[in-house]
Amino acid sequence: MTVDETIRQVLTDHGRLAVAVDSISEDTDLFGAGMTSHASVNVMLALEDAFDFEFSEKMLKKSTFESIAAIRSGVLEMTGG
Amino acid sequence: MTHVSDVAPMTRAGDVAARMTAIADEVAGPAAADVDDKGRFPIETIDALKAEGLLAALVPVEFGGGGASLEEVSQGLVALGRRCASSAMILAMHHIQVACLVRHGHTGALRSYLQELAEHQNLLASATTEVGTGGDVRSSVCAVEVTDGRFRLEKQAPVISYADDSDAVLVTARRTADSPESDQVIVLCRPPGLELEQVGEWNALGFRGTCSTGFVLRATGDADEVLPESYADISTHTMLPMAHLMWSSVWLGIASDAVDLARRFVQREARRKPGTMPPAALRLADVTVVHQQFVDMVQSSLARYAAAGTDADRLSSIGFGVGMNALKVSSSTLVVDIVRECMLICGLASYRLDTPFSLGRHLRDAMGASLMVNNDRIMANNAQMLLVLRGE
To answer: Which of B238, B328, B247 is nearest to B74 (CA)?
Structure first.
């Protein structure tokens, strides 16, 4: 799976969005799409497992998880991709 | 933009705590037993605060308010909490709502409402919980519907404290009828577009003067009176930290008065037998240590919030959230611990309802602290956040 596919799979499994993950763009506001702060923690844990890394303290903020594009940029920054 | 209130002398920064203390001693204290006994709104205390312009203590000076610091307001709440915890809790809840408007009410209509609040000393109430959400304030069933620049909203609220005596209610709701339940906004609802239908009564163990009954709330108004930012952000940046700081100040007031009574009790015993250490003197020394922890915790938490300022990343960081939740859990636990210790010091004089050392109302009020937003819910939130907190 590509990075984006993995992110979308994690969101499907843990994001608890009010809409289908396939139907949103990479810039859709995930919190506006129904992701709660609780769900975002699970998304984060699943991303760390899927990509085998840990987000740094400074990345543990809402904006890191606000969209697929933001998540991808965070993942790539932390995995050196 | 400045203007002078016509109901009160301008609140002067620097003396807010002293003026709140005077009202606590001269008005709230004498009325406290009757407020508690009848479970009635402490109208004389709130009127006294209004007459001094103190409901706008946290409103910036340029909007006609007092421009007071949180430290001053916290000190005033401690003083009021010593004399009448119901009055202090009402004022605490009001200031939490005011802070949300000051920090997040960036529309023309909300800016002019802040001036109106300062001029008329309006009392704000809050409707966050809702029937059908299981006590989770971060999700809503009801939704804002906007047509032609006007909003419409109906909410089944299990609790709106002192709604009947308030001048406006800040209400959470889904942003639109199509929004998911977690996509919430805050709406300023006020007369003439506000209708409140009371459901049930408030007959509780403590905080009896807060009149925390349920209501069906129906409101219409200018769409500009919907706060533009998401409730999630307003909650994280302002409502939650403010609530935990202001509530903790009230509970510290309850604990402080209990410690005062215990100290007076021990000193009375000491005067009766000079040279003999009263049996409860060591226990008083113990409870004084715990009380100082409480004082210092509230002060350091106020400093932590002030240091974060309006830095969104800092306010939304996991460490900050865990810390503010820890404050609420600690202070709501300490207030009960301290009152219980003081009861052991004063003995039956505190258990009786007809002595100067009675601690019955203190204990009943204190027991509410861990229940209003249940500590178990807060600890579950912290447990969740600790799954990802870094120790960096």
So the answer is: B247
What is the mean predicted confidence (pLDDT) over B29-38? 98
The reply to whether B380 touches chain A by the CB within 8 Å rule is: no
Q: Over range B370-392, report the average pLDDT.
A: 90
Q: List chain B residues with CB under 8 Å of A63.
A: 313
Q: Is the ipTM of this complex over 0.90?
A: no
Q: Given an 8 Å threshold on Cβ–Cβ distance, is B390 in contact with A54?
A: yes
Is B384 within 8 Å of chain A by CB?
A: yes
Pick the more confident residue, B96 or B134. B96
* Residue B392 at interface with chain A, using a CB cutoff of 8 Å: yes
Q: pLDDT at position B14, please?
A: 58
Q: Cα torsion at B326, B331, B332, B333 (round to 10°)?
A: 90
Q: Any idea where the domains of chain A sit in the sequence?
A: 3-79
| pLDDT tens for each residue of B249-270 | 999 999 999 999 999 999 999 9
Interstrand relation of B212-222 and B194-199 (parallel, antiparallel or unpaired): antiparallel
How far apart (Å, rounded) are the C-alpha atoms in residues B160 and B151?
20
Backbone angles phi, psi at B171, to 5 degrees: -120, 135
Q: What is the pTM of this model?
A: 0.93
Phi, psi (degrees; rounded to nearest 5) at B355: -120, 160
- Comparing CA positions, the residue from B217, B223, B220, B225 lying closest to residue B154 is B217
Write down the pLDDT at residue B4: 38
List the CATH code of the domain at A3-79: 1.10.1200.10
